Amino acid sequence: MRISTTRSALLAGAVAVTLSATALPAAFAAPSSSAVISEVYGGGGNSGATLTRDFVELANAGSAAYDLSGLSVQYLPGAPSAGSQWQVSPLTGSVAPGGRYLVAEAAGAGGTVALPTPDATGTVAMSATAGTVALVSGTTPLTCRTAADCAADTRIVDLVGYGTAVVREGSGPAKGASATASVARAASLADTDDNAADLTAAAPSPVNAAGETSGGGEDPGDPGNPTEPGTVRVHDIQGTTRVSPLDGKAVTGVPGVVTAVRTSGSRGFWIQDTAPDADPRTGEGVFVYTGSAAPAVQVGDSVLVSGTVDEYYPSTTTQSITEITAPKVTVVSSGNALPAPVVLDAKAVPSKYVPSAGGGSIDALPLEPSTYALDLYESLEGTRVQIADTRVTGATTKYHEVWVTVEPKQNPTRRGGTLYASYTDQNTGRIKVISLDPAAPVPTANVGDVLAGTTSGVLDYDSYGGYNLQATALGKVTDHHLRREVTRKQKGKELAVATYNVENLDALDDQAKFDTLAEGVAVNLSSPDIVSLEEIQDDNGAVNDGTVGSEATLKRFTDAIVAAGGPRYSWRYVAPQDGKDGGEPGGNIRNVFLFNPKRVDFVDRPGGDATTPVAAVKTKKGVTLSVSPGRIAPASAAWDDSRKPLVGEFRFHGKSVFVVGNHFASKGGDQPLHGRYQEPVRSSETKRVQQAKEVNTFVKSLLAADKSARVVVLGDLNDFAFSPTVGALTDGKVLKPLITTLPKNEQYSYVYEGNSQTLDHILTSPGVRRFDYDVVHINAEFADQASDHDPQIVRVDVNAPDHGHGHGGHGHHGHH
């Protein structure tokens, strides 16, 4: 399985901070006589370290208490990339005059001594050798990446760069930080705004507000090999919310039976208490994280575990996993029976998905496992569970994961999936299944197959889909023989227009990929007259050398279509500017039109290039394009680092048809459905709405010149039919989304985390009066797929009479 490489064990570190009470001018805070970042340590839990956890210490040299309400400590890697983000740890309380304030950060698997009881706790895994820590007025992440830019940010109260950090104060960063050394100010807390002069390397010496030093209040000491359980049980660790009430605290002799062992990726084992309490909110299982060390226990061992409780967040927007880290384990006995698994089925799982926090964190909300599915799953985190005869809703991935549903009647699709119907209908029964035995991975399954018999294991959580069943016993797949669809051939009078995302196709790809995609066009789509392609890369793919042409790629693809029995397609595209259209770095993906010149004519109008906008031109014979092919408003900020729509003018049976190929900005960066913030923020939506407005404006310009113009807008819009994006695209009823003409259980072309949904669309203008529309399911529901998208096709009767009824036509299966 995929595990985050920023595990606390890999990059644990500590930071001490001294606060400055003066606001920043255009340079960093003036030398402070009050609060500053006093010590920074990034080696906690690393190999060779004594302390188990990173920390940031603040100090107050002033004569009055320094209020930390609303402030935060933030961390940035030493050599930040464009994608690096400041990680935030909010603060509360205050620093007393002459006092200290300790911020605990991520724990690692190494070390033997815990921090003193922290005054605030974050989850940042800092580098032991290089990084930047800032004390910030507010909790909004900083955006600066250079020393100069950060010096100009007046929110920064104090800042310490260490090691080789790019962002630092003064002549250079503080030197000497390592797994065994922090950087700290002198006892005088002198702050001359020069990190290299003000902080020196020494053994870490964290002090909290109570004046405790290393281990005070949190040090488990040496629990030795206790033969009797301590006072803390697993349900005390799990608590009644998503975050342990013992987070950051040492625990000794926690009893449990080992229910499962993970020997790869995030190594460790699960224990479960055999004497549960009566509260359904408090879980009885917990993960014991052993870091790089292989777990030295076996399933059925009765154990006593000592260590430090930690909430591990796989990413900043996910929920956390409650763990015991830096464990010391005593095996009391072996061969014990395991607790009976909790059965997950339609009766057990609530119909509501997750509580709302108005967009905020649900971490502190009391769990309601009988009301919300995610609360139920959280209450069972680390606990043995069992499912039976579950339908597959997301095919087996290359990571050997499969999605099933324990709610078989929940929004079923015609072909066995589960439809994602709205933002408020999240399909509570979806569970990802992973095998804990590398030698017996999850078997290959397609949507609609059944994982028959019982599958059991422990319930876990990760950032790739949320709650998942780590299986110790797998059911067998019952093959329901899902077939790849073949759409009907267009009639002589019908213009067939299709869209297909071919997933980063370039001339360096294996011939097998070309052949499979080509068969999709020639056979499954029955050789459309026009195919609008998304994700055609430049000819050398993800090699960033300035190449922007796709001729070799398109020749190989069109040759493969001929070999598969299709026509000899011609093509048109506008080569992008290098590095301006997003996608895989160096790949320069673009939209491309293929067309069958024996059936349809392309109207070439010169002048179209990467930067020239296409415009509607009104003539006595109707509307034409200023350039063809052309791009819509390529200079608009809506298309920054994103694909520009491709517009082409075609002639079929003497009639003009305008086709607009699109590939809107991706959903990358949106908060997950299963995450800690509810409702999730869809931050990427803003850009897609801007893009939709640009296309809508262009379509309106065509219709203003000729209200009966036949316009087909299609492509990968990266958004749903019920989204604001599609709402902006159809504004003024100038376009009809054809996906909504299908039966509800057919309205999908993509499967993500077990949800069947629609990201690809075909929309038509009122001038398209008679049509036949089809989504052709050949990829998204299958483990073996040439692309993760299913293509779509519309067959248009360009000579249909206008009966004054606006849009006619229909969507249907159209398969044989």
Describe this structure in words.
This protein is 10% helix and 31% strand. The chain is built from 9 helices and 43 strands. β34 (646-652) and β35 (655-663) form a beta hairpin. The model is unreliable at 1-27 and 216-224 (pLDDT under 50).
For the report, how would you describe the main beta sheet? 7 strands, mixed
Shape verdict: globular
Q: Determine the N-to-C terminus distance.
A: 38 Å
Report the β-strand fraction as a percent range: 25-35%
Report the C-alpha radius of gyration, rounded: 30 Å
Structural class: mainly beta
Query: What is the β-strand count?
Result: 43
Contiguous low-pLDDT stretches (5 residues minimum) are: 1-27, 216-224
Percent helix, as a range, is under 10%
What does the average pLDDT come to? 91
Number of alpha- plus pi-helical segments: 9
Concise account of the structure shown:
By secondary structure, this protein is mainly beta.
Strand and helix map with partners:
Blueprint: H1 8-11, E1 14-15, E2 35-41, E3 53-60, E4 66-67, E5 71-77, E6 87-90, E7 94-95, E8 100-107, E9 120-121, E10 131-137, H2 147-151, E11 156-162, E12 182-185, H3 195-198, E13 199-202, H4 234-238, E14 250-262, E15 267-272, E16 285-291, E17 302-312, E18 321-333, E19 342-343, H5 373-379, E20 384-394, E21 401-405, E22 430-435, E23 450-462, E24 466-473, E25 476-478, E26 494-505, H6 511-524, E27 530-536, H7 551-563, E28 570-572, E29 590-595, E30 601-602, E31 616-619, E32 622-625, E33 630-631, E34 646-652, E35 655-663, H8 685-705, E36 710-716, H9 724-729, E37 736-737, E38 750-752, E39 755-757, E40 760-764, E41 771-775, E42 792-797, E43 810-811
Parallel strand pairs: 8-9, 16-18, 19-20, 22-24, 26-27, 35-36, 41-43
Antiparallel strand pairs: 1-2, 2-3, 2-12, 3-8, 4-7, 5-6, 5-10, 10-11, 12-13, 14-15, 14-17, 15-16, 17-18, 20-21, 20-23, 21-22, 23-24, 23-25, 26-42, 27-29, 28-29, 30-34, 31-32, 33-34, 34-35, 36-40, 37-40, 38-39, 41-42
